[in-house]
Amino acid sequence: MSELELQGWTPWPEDFARLYRELGYWRGQTLADLLADRARHQPQRLALVCGERRWTYRELHRQSLQLALGLHRLGIQRQDRVIVQLPNVAEFFTVCFALFRLGALPVFALPAHRRAEITHFCELAQAKAWIVADRDGGFDFRELARQVVNAAPSLQQVVVCGDAGEFIALDSLLATVGESDFSRTVLSGTDFTGTASSATAPQEDTTLMELSLAEQALPSGPAASDVAFLQLSGGSTGLPKLIPRTHDDYLYSVRASASICELDQHSVYLCALPAAHNFPLSSPGTLGTFYTGGTVVLARRPTPDDCFPLIAKEGVTVTALVPPLAMVWLDAASKRKSDLHSLQLLQVGGARFSAEAARRVKPVLGCRLQQVFGMAEGLVNYTRLDDTDDIIASTQGRPISPADEIRVVDDEDQTVLPGETGHLLTRGPYTIRGYFRADEHNRRAFTADGFYRTGDIVRQLPGGHLIVEGRAKDQINRGGDKVAAEEVENHLLAHPAVHDAALVAMPDAFLGEKTCAFVVTRGDAPRAIELLRFLQGRGLAGYKIPDRIEFIAQLPKTGVGKVNKRELRERIAHRLGATAE
């Protein structure tokens, strides 16, 4: 650990950390180093495409350093937490790399999050700043900011990408070194490479000089063992937990993923899912593409109408989708003549992908399929590119690392027989040892010897591949968006007419699961639309609003007095089946 340690997180035990360094998994590189190295070795390669903007690695690095300098002058310091809530725009990456360079910690919120979630993140992380878009998808985030600033005492600055209104404009923070500083450096005879320079340096030398000056104006960066950022858990109990990832552990996952997926400098990655999601960020995602010197193409929406033309225009070779979107793409590709010949690999993850759908990918889209099963807490599994068609279609892959330790256990934490179904436990060089500032939850979520209880029910095949059978936690996977039942139930219980509530999954052919809220009311039941508007008014993200509300006289209970959610799931599934008939 560095001399400045973040409070509230659990590092790896020193003997494990030493082993991971000796084995070469942790290499002492930071995420800021990743971009700087690429800008140094391949400065003119195309790094990022966002609409009409096309940035080389040097341009991306320069923008990030300028923003780092501006944020530093704004008062953002090492280990300050900054909520980052941006859509798929180039600024997402300049913001991230700027914060990485400063050693400040992005807290990755999603564009779908609203007042309830953002306020929670600000309070839990004690966030000093929030960087947000002006508008996205028809929603005005500046109005949201006006609500949040009054509820989050730690929040000192709101920075807006676009029309900032009364807040700070992100573009205004793109600081440049002063002309006098530049002149002094030239006259002193030093430049980016440390060799002699002249006052008549060409434009290339001027650019290098500006990069050097920006670096010199910034404080020293973080250590690779420091926490780099905080991601969000899927959240099975209440609001999401914060997941601390270090530079060392996350970059190992990125490097290993890029190798498994055979990315190189010719790879063109289409970022169709929200950029802050762990899947498109690191599996191998945008960071894996930057690591190998490839090109990242940003799509504002993951629809075929948006993405198919980008695939044709930019020669996209790889992209990642959740199962419902993969189904939409398959249907669209089978009905229209789209130029998808450059696409070599489609990754599908975030929820289980049916074997029937998986077998359609190659004949319909003309590319290989790779199933991905992972979690922001760490463990990531891939089907390999040389796996058989049957393994690719029917499993969710095997772990990245030979150091990933897997246990499949019963309800008493006893290892089950090979091939039997059980709870998935894991630990390894990129799986966290504890959530941020969540001591009580950590005692339940981790074993005494450091294994993370993933909440997934799996079977493991002899070759190491996992088949995900379901979830043990009270969480609903709505097409890849994780909905914590307890969180939504607590919001429903805040309505004066609601006596009790239980949220359960109901089957859906498109999303896999949707949400159904069973509600017990006091007196006359309010209309379902009233409850839905109530939840919207409490600032709940749209994907968490129940898809269906069922009013019920009382919730069924188990023998020990707990709500019998299995019975509720069976009840709604039966009702939907009867309706379909």
The major pleated sheet works out as:
9 strands, mixed
Mean pLDDT: 90
Strand content: 15-25%
Count of domain modules: 3
The appropriate CATH architecture of the largest domain is 3-Layer(aba) Sandwich
Can you say what the CATH homologous superfamily of the largest domain is?
ANL, N-terminal domain
Oligomer: single chain
Return Rg in Å: 24 Å
Under CATH, the topology of the largest domain can be stated as: Rossmann fold
Q: What is the helix fraction of residues, given as a range?
A: 25-40%
Strands, total number: 27
Describe the structure.
It is a single chain. The chain is α/β, with parallel strands linked by helices and 581 residues long. It has 3 domains: 57-232, Rossmann fold (3-Layer(aba) Sandwich), CATH 3.40.50; 247-471, 3-Layer(aba) Sandwich (Rossmann fold); 476-580, GMP Synthetase, Chain A, domain 3 (2-Layer Sandwich). It is built from 20 helices and 27 strands. A 9-stranded mixed beta sheet has the order 2-1-13-12-14-15-16-17-18, with helices on both faces. A hairpin with a 5-residue loop joins strand 16 (368-374) and strand 17. The protein starts with 13 loop residues before the first helix and ends with a helix. The relative contact order is 0.09.
